[in-house]
Task: inverse folding
C-alpha cells in the first residue's frame, strides 16, 4: 500500500499492513530512490567546507591591520592553521547542529585569542604595540563570527524551505507527542515522516484517528528511510536507545544523525564535553552514538591500550613464565584457559587466562557463575586468583584489540542473555570494548556482587569517559592489585 499524503496531525497511528511501505515527503526524494550515506551527508559536508573556508580566510582582514613590515605570510598561515585545529577540537565543525548567531561567539573568539597569543610569543609580532595586536584580534574575531553567521543563516533558510525529514523512535504516546510538537513548529527545520514503535503498542491503541505511519519493524523503518531520504532520527527517552539498539544501528549505517530527546526529563548534561546540547521545538537534545557506532575517544583509548599492554607484556613475561611453569608442574598440562566472552557490539571473542580451575564439562564452563572459593582448588590456584595474576594473559587480548585495559568486564554468552533480560541497562555496556578492569571493579564490584550496580557503574563510566579517567582507574587498580578478592 502506498500512502497518498503525509497527514499533518500525529494524534493516532496509521496501521501499516505487511508489504510495500511508503511515507511520502515533499521533494525529489519521495520518488523512492535513496541516496547512499555519502550522498545523504553531502549538504552537511558542504557546510563543513564553507566553515573551514570562513575560518581559514578570516585572518586576512586582520593582516591589513598589521603594519606592512610585519606581515609575514608564514606566520599568518600558521595562525590560520592553528585556529582551524583548535576549532576542530572544540567540535565547531559539527554540522549536525545549526547554532544561533550568538551561540558560538565565546568559543570562536577564545580560540582566535589563543592562536594570536601563541603567534605573538613565538614570532617577531611580539614587537608590535598592544593596541595594534588588540585591533588585529578584534578584526579577526569579527570576520570569523560574521562569516560563520552567514553560513548558519543560509543553512537555516534552506531548512525552513525544505525541512529535514526525520523518524521518531520511542514509545508510541511519547513519540506522537514529539512528532506533533515538531509539526506545529515547522521553523525548527525538522519534519517527522514516521514513528518507529513496538507492534504491541500499535495493536493496543484504540484511537483510530489517522496520523503519521507507525513502523513496527526494522525493515519498515529502513524502507521509509530510503524512500524519504531521512537523515535525522529522534530517539525519545533514554530507555529507547537500549531497547531499539539494533534498529538504531541499522539507521545509523545509512548515514543518519541520531539525537536523543529529553521529552519528559532533563538530560542533566550527560552528553559530556562533546555533546552540543540544544533545543528542538522546546525539547532538549543531545547527540547519540548507537551501540555499534564509532565511539568517541576510540583512537586515544586504543593508543593507550597498545602502548601499556605491550609494555606490560614485556615486563610481566618472566612472572607469567614462572606461573605457567608452576601450574604445569603442580596441575598438569593445559595451563592456558580459553573461554568465549562477549565484547564490543555483542561480538564474541576468546579470552585468555591462566587455568586455575578445570570444569567438569563444557556446560559447567559456560554456566557456572563463580569458582573463586572452590575448595577443590589448590593453594597455588587460590593465590593466582587472589592476586589476579591469572588475569595477566588478558594483556594479549588487549594488545590484539579484543579488549581494552579499562572497560566493562566481559561475560559469557549465557550470562549476557540472562542479565540482559533482567537488567535493561546491561546491553548498553557493550557500547565500548570490554576491559581487564573498570570503574565497577575499583569500587569493589568484583566476583559475586550486584549485577545492577555493575551496570550502573559501567554505563556511567562510558557516558562520562575521558582518557584521564582511564589513567585514574589504572592507578587505583594497581594499588588494589593484591587485594584478596576473586575475579
Result:
Amino acid at each position: 500500500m502506498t500512502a497518498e499524503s503525509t497527514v499533518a496531525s500525529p494524534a493516532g497511528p496509521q496501521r501499516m499492513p505487511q508489504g510495500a511501505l511508503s511515507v511520502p515527503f515533499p521533494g525529489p526524494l519521495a520518488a523512492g530512490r535513496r541516496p547512499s550515506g555519502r550522498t545523504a551527508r553531502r549538504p552537511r559536508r558542504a557546510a563543513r567546507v564553507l566553515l573551514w573556508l570562513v575560518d581559514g580566510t578570516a585572518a586576512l582582514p586582520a593582516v591589513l591591520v598589521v603594519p606592512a613590515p610585519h606581515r609575514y605570510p608564514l606566520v599568518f598561515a600558521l595562525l590560520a592553521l592553528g585556529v582551524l585545529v583548535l576549532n576542530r577540537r572544540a567540535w565547531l565543525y559539527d554540522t549536525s547542529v545549526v547554532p544561533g548567531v550568538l551561540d558560538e561567539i565565546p568559543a570562536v573568539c577564545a580560540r582566535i585569542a589563543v592562536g594570536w597569543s601563541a603567534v605573538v610569543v613565538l614570532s617577531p609580532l611580539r614587537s608590535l604595540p598592544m593596541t595594534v595586536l588588540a585591533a588585529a584580534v578584534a578584526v579577526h574575531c569579527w570576520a570569523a563570527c560574521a562569516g560563520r553567521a552567514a553560513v548558519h543563516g543560509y543553512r537555516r533558510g534552506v531548512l525552513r524551505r525544505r525541512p529535514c525529514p526525520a523518524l521518531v523512535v520511542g514509545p508510541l504516546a511519547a513519540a506522537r507527542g514529539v512528532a506533533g510538537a515538531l509539526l506545529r513548529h515547522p521553523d525548527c527545520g525538522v519534519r517527522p515522516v514516521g514513528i518507529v514503535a513496538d507492534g504491541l503498542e500499535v495493536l493496543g491503541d484504540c484511537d483510530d484517528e489517522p496520523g503519521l505511519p507507525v513502523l513496527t519493524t526494522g525493515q519498515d523503518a529502513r524502507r521509509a528511510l530510503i524512500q524519504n531520504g531521512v537523515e535525522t532520527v529522534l530517539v525519545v527517552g533514554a530507555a529507547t536507545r537500549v531497547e531499539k539498539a539494533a534498529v538504531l544501528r541499522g539507521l545509523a549505517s545509512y548515514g543518519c544523525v541520531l539525537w536523543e530527546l529529553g521529552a519528559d526529563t532533563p538530560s542533566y548534561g550527560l552528553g559530556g564535553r562533546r555533546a552540543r546540547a540544544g533545543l528542538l521545538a522546546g525539547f532538549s537534545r543531545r547527540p547519540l552514538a548507537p551501540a555499534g557506532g564509532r565511539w568517541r575517544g576510540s583512537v586515544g583509548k586504543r593508543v593507550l591500550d597498545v602502548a601499556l599492554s605491550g609494555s606490560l607484556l614485556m615486563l610481566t613475561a618472566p612472572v607469567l613464565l614462572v606461573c605457567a611453569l608452576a601450574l604445569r608442574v603442580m596441575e598438569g598440562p593445559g595451563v592456558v584457559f580459553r573461554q568465549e566472552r562477549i565484547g564490543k557490539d555483542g561480538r564474541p571473542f576468546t579470552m585468555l587466562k591462566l587455568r586455575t580451575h578445570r570444569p567438569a564439562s563444557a556446560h559447567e564452563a559456560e554456566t557456572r557463575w563463580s569458582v573463586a572459593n572452590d575448595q577443590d582448588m589448590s593453594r597455588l590456584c587460590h593465590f593466582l586468583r587472589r592476586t589476579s595474576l591469572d588475569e595477566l594473559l588478558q594483556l594479549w587480548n588487549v594488545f590484539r584489540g579484543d579488549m581494552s585495559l579499562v572497560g566493562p568486564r566481559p561475560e559469557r554468552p549465557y550470562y549476557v542473555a540472562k542479565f540482559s533480560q533482567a537488567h535493561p541497562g546491561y546491553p548498553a555496556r557493550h557500547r565500548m570494548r570490554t576491559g581487564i578492569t573498570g570503574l565497577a571493579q575499583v569500587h569493589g564490584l568484583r566476583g559475586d556482587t550486584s549485577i545492577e550496580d555493575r551496570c550502573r557503574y559501567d554505563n556511567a563510566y562510558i557516558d562520562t569517559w575521558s582518557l584521564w579517567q582511564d589513567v585514574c582507574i589504572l592507578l587505583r587498580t594497581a594499588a588494589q592489585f593484591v587485594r584478596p578478592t576473586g575475579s
The chain has three domains: 43-159, 163-287, 298-479. The chain has a mean pLDDT of 76. The two ends are 56 Å apart (CA to CA).
